[in-house]
Amino acid sequence: MAAKEIFGLVMLGLPCVLILGGGFGWLICYAFVVRRLRNHHNETWMKLGSPSYMPALPVRTNYWSYALMDWIMCRDYLVIDDEELTRLAARCRILYRSIFVALGVVAIDTVLGLVSLLRTRPK
């Protein structure tokens, strides 16, 4: 296998691993943040709309208003003096962002692949 083919596989494989790992990791981390809030910071959990462990579809419940994700992404968890919650929410932010970074890499890789195809197409 040529170095160019290996590079292409890495450029496609690495983002796929980041998307899958980030997605599953984010869901797991999200559930731990919800559990920590519900068990140790009930008032904050209630203010955020009493989120469930899994983000639900809007049809089934009235929750998914992105309140908890906004709370995490804006780093509002730093107001609460809880090291465990801070660690979980920070990981959740990193995993969530890794999904979009990987999607960006896939998009760039796709554009570069299309440009390469157009250049090598016989006239």
Helix-strand blueprint:
Elements: H1 3-40, H2 42-47, H3 67-73, H4 83-120
Helix pairs in contact: 1-4
Structure description:
This protein is elongated. It has one domain. The protein has 4 helices and no strands. 72% of the residues lie in helices and 0% in strands. The model has no long low-confidence stretch (mean pLDDT 81). It is an all-alpha fold and 123 residues long. The chain starts with a helix and ends with a helix.
Features:
single chain; 123 residues; mainly alpha
Shape: elongated
DSSP, total strands: 0
Overall tally of structural domains: 1
Q: Biggest sheet: strands, sense, closure?
A: none
Secondary-structure class: mainly alpha
What integer is the average pLDDT? 81
Kindly report how far apart the N and C termini lie: 28 Å
What is the helix/strand order?
HHHH
- What fraction of the residues are assigned to beta strands by DSSP? under 5%
Q: Mind telling me the C-alpha Rg?
A: 20 Å
Helix proportion: over 70%
Count, helices:
4
Low-confidence spans: none
Summarize the structure.
This protein has 123 residues and is mainly alpha-helical.
